[in-house]
Amino acid sequence: MTLISLVHVAGGFVIVCEALAKLAHCRPIWEWRHCRIFGLCELATAVAWILAGLGGGGAIVTPLMRWHGPDLGDAFIVAALALIIILARVRERPALEACP
């Protein structure tokens, strides 16, 4: 595998993990509020993470199946989304206090 393929697969793995984590916290349809806008936002969020998970899965499977190698644009998009996810996770963690 080339370096581009490794970046593509690693980024796809991060995206799939984040999509599964976000979908685990989504509420089922029957628990949505009666407000139409809120329900549409919940639906849009769930659909977006489902599509991101499918795209991340494709990023993992495509180079491994040797259908075609990822081009530079695909690798950059997957790496950028994975980096955004990692940075968001780092910002969520509480700041470490200085040791005395």
Structure overview:
The protein has 100 residues and is mainly α. Helices cover 73% and strands 0% of the residues. The protein is built from 3 helices and no strands. Helix 1 runs antiparallel to helix 2. The chain is elongated.
What is the structure about, briefly put?
This protein has helices at residues 3-24, 36-65, 72-92. It is mostly helical and 100 residues long.
Given helix and strand content, the structural type is: mainly alpha
Helix content: over 70%
Radius of gyration: 17 Å
**Mean pLDDT, all residues:** 78
Percent of sequence in beta strands: under 5%
User: How far from one another are the termini?
Assistant: 47 Å
Envelope shape: elongated
What's the assembly state of these chains? single chain
Summarize the helix and strand pattern as letters. Answer: HHH
Instruction: Supply the number of helical segments.
Output: 3
The stretches of 5 or more residues where confidence is low (pLDDT under 50) are: none
Main pleated-sheet profile: none
How many β-strand runs?
0
How are the SSEs placed, and which strands pair?
Blueprint: H1 3-24, H2 36-65, H3 72-92
Helix pairs in contact: 1-2, 1-3
Which features would summarize this protein structure in a list?
mainly alpha; 0% strand; elongated
